[in-house]
Amino acid sequence: MKVARLGDRFKIESSDKENLYNVDLAEPSCDCPSFIYRRNECKHIIAAKKFAEEEARTEKDVLEFVSGNDADIALLHKKFGNEKINQMIRLGDLIERDGKVRVLAKEL
Ligand SMILES: [Zn+2]
Prior knowledge:
Bound molecules: zinc ion
Number of domains: 2
Oligomer: single chain
């Protein structure tokens, strides 16, 4: 099942690959017939939850790996995937400078 995240919303491919359903985990809701008629957690919502959990777990792993010492960006890309690392840099969770990555200390 293909999953794509768009902010807080997810697009999930149907099992027959004919449709793309929109899942909003905040509600949670899905626009597939199963959710519309039964109002029960459908397989798309479950897939989106699983995807979000997986993402959070990877982020935690990255932060733990980087925390305390600068990490080489090439190593991070290799270990956790380009997309995830670039996303975390873009969102400001990580700072990249001269090929080294560090965790941005969050101030409250
Ligand atoms: Zn659904």
